[in-house]
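Give me the fold.
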Amino acid sequence: MAGEVNFYGIYIPLILIQALLAYVLYSGLIRLLDKWQLGRWMALPTIFNVCLYIIVLGLIVWICHLLF
């Protein structure tokens, strides 16, 4: 698996693309969780959000590693 993607002569790190995809999925997941109003049941929602993003990013990196 290559560590970067060549886009018209500009090398873009693969982790940057994965992080952007993780952010998009994380944003949708947070909106879904906000509809259920789970934030008021959490003691530290900011730490929960950071951990959720790291989990989503880890899953995307793992899936890309399996596919490529």
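The chain has a mean pLDDT of 93.
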